[in-house]
Amino acid sequence: MKKILFIVFISHAILFSRTIIKGEVSQLGTNSPIQGANIQIKGTETGTATTASGSFVIETEIEFPIELLISHIGFKSKKYVVLDDKAIKIEMEDRILAVDAIDVSGVRQKYEADVSTSVITLDKSFIDELGIRDLGTALTRISGVSTKLSSSGKQTISIRGSNAEDVPVYLDGIPINDVMTGVADLSSIDLNSIENIQVIKSGNSMLYGEGAIGGVVDMTSVFPEKKSLKLKIGSGIPSGDDFDYSGNSGYKKNNFGGFGSLALKSRSYGFRTVTYNEFGHLTLGYIKGDQSIRLNYHQMEKSLEFPGGSLTNADLMNLYGLKFSGNIFGSPGWTISFGRRFWNLSQDYFSSLNEEVQDLMDFSQIMKRGRIGIVDLTGFLEYQEKGFSGKKAYFDFNSQPVVVQNTDLSRNSLTGAGVAQVIVFGNTPALKVAKFEMGIRASRLQTYRTESFEFKNLTSDGTVIQYIKPDFLLNNFPTNKRLGIRIEGLMPLFNYVFFINQGNNTRLPTLSDYFRFSNALHQGDNDSTLTKESLSTTDFGLKLDLDTFDNNSLINSIKVEFNYFQNLYINKIAYRFIENSPPTPFNTETADVSGFETFIVMSLIEDKVEISVSGLELRISDFTAFPNKPERKWVTAVRAKNDKMSASLDMIFEGKKVFLLPGLGFGSQEKRMDGNISFSYHNTFFNWNMRLTYSIQNFLSKSNQNLSAKESLEKGLNYFNQYREMVSLSVEL
């Protein structure tokens, strides 16, 4: 009996001698619990991951004090010293690294972005620090992303070789892709009013409506945290038709706030043509905890002039949006949005064709997020009404109208989507969490068209001949699917994330495609119809985060990402370029784009120096279907900063590319190497924050200044390939 009591006593002594650490992990500023955060005792393999409520418990034989290492993808890693057995509370700060393609950070626009997708977020501090003036420059370092400036001054984006009409761009939840071209013009966007820019590279996103087959760009405008006033002036050197003027002001009291901005840009293209952009923005909102409501208004206006001063292109877009996020009758996770876009365009093609169009789009969307057990569910329902009216006039050599085409098109769509994510926690840090994702989207689209033609000046008595085409009605019911998995873990030297997704998507011809197809010069029987295109995607990536260096180490962290993608298209919509005419759409039979991306970033000297390398190797089966895409792009960047100064150097290498330009046809641009450099100084004077930035863009291309506008076009060069010296000054209260 004494022996048994002795054994029990010893067992209790051993049991109660074990150290128990317990606590909670939450997000700094919001107090929201963080699920899946890795908690590890420094110098050991003992650790655990936080639960859905953010709590954790660790048992160990090590005595206090104990140093913990806390890490999570999307948050800054930190250390915490536990002194006793009292419950601890750890707050983690969002990781907002401007060029970090490893982590998803900042405001998460869509719930699915954290699972099996490569996502990059650029924040406002990165843009301000480098004195970036255009969205194209801001996206330079991102592997797989390229921008192009057309001869009309329109700035468009391509993600992983996709065409601009395949990439929906959202501004505060409102799509800005116009119906006429199907693309979004980024040139008018005022970066001083943008809080962050999120780029989703996947071609099968479920929660962004129909047609998102080339990736997504999602921009969120600034909402004030305090009273503010900011003025910014940017100018080329020497000054001329290359300048920026912008100002914004914010006000917040209690839970109410407002923000307004106004900007004017002028850009010379090839030092021959000049574009003018005006951007206005107003936001009013209420935010309290998880509840928020925001009312947004944006106005973007653009015009293009040639040296003679004649107006050849002018457009105006107005955006209205209302968005509510929060709880409804005690049920959390609701988002309700309403929006309207109105756009006018007038443009000429070489004095032989004039187009005047109007585009009106209304949409409403309701989204709900929730959890049942280990399953996260997101569902949304969206209704859109798109209207397009166009007038196209052809002229003869005497500038007399010969044919006038009038078209009215409309498209109504009802879309429902759901994404389910199953989260399974592992028993060891090496496999701490696995997330399985399944998504489906189904739409009902109805397209209606009326069209008529007027033939003038064909008879001696001036009689106008009119032809009215039969009405056109088309119903489509596309269904898109996606499967994905994401695995996270912690090895002795690094954190890792592996993801893979497989899916399909579809895109109908835009209303503009129908408009231009109906009266174009066709070639062959294959052009007798215009049908939807289908996409099958495969995307997988591996991310490594070596964030375990000692505090005394020169290197603070190393992050590595590798991605492989393959996009296979059937009936891909491509465009022929006919002399003195807009591009004409047609369907190819098959086409594919595949590639390999890599990204490496290393932080040194307490994060004061950052060195990064991003690269894309692209394989395109048909350059007719995917023009203006370099076969490879590599960017090496070095950034150094301290409390008041920063410097940045980007070296850019682009491989050969085939381009198509209206009126010129095919061309080929050989390998190109260039570089950008910037210096920035900021300080506070009399409670005003001031920042002065000097930058040189494309400093290896100074000889291109002597090229004519036609020579620049024939070489495939645009504004972003031109040598530029620029200075900007911002003053903020």
Give a written overview of the molecule:
With 733 residues, the protein is mainly beta. 5% of the residues lie in helices and 59% in strands. It contains 5 helices and 41 strands. The strands form 7 sheets. The protein has a 22-stranded antiparallel barrel. The longest helix has 15 residues, at 2-16. It is globular. It starts with a helix and ends with a strand. Mean pLDDT is 80; it is low at 2-16 and 96-114.
Write a concise synopsis of the structure shown.
With 733 residues, the chain is mainly beta.
Give the SSE layout:
Layout: H1 2-16, E1 19-27, E2 38-41, E3 47-49, E4 55-60, E5 66-72, E6 75-82, E7 88-92, E8 119-123, H2 124-129, H3 135-138, E9 145-149, E10 155-159, E11 169-171, E12 174-175, E13 194-200, E14 216-221, E15 228-236, E16 243-253, E17 256-269, E18 273-288, E19 291-305, E20 311-328, E21 331-349, E22 353-372, E23 375-395, E24 401-428, E25 431-455, E26 465-476, E27 479-490, E28 495-507, H4 511-517, E29 533-546, E30 555-570, E31 573-576, E32 584-587, E33 590-604, E34 609-620, E35 632-641, E36 645-654, E37 657-661, E38 665-669, E39 672-685, E40 688-697, H5 709-714, E41 724-732
Parallel strand pairs: 1-7, 11-14
Antiparallel strand pairs: 1-4, 2-3, 2-5, 5-6, 8-13, 9-10, 11-12, 13-14, 15-16, 15-41, 16-17, 17-18, 18-19, 19-20, 20-21, 21-22, 22-23, 23-24, 24-25, 25-26, 25-27, 27-28, 28-29, 29-30, 30-33, 31-32, 33-34, 34-35, 35-36, 36-39, 37-38, 39-40, 40-41
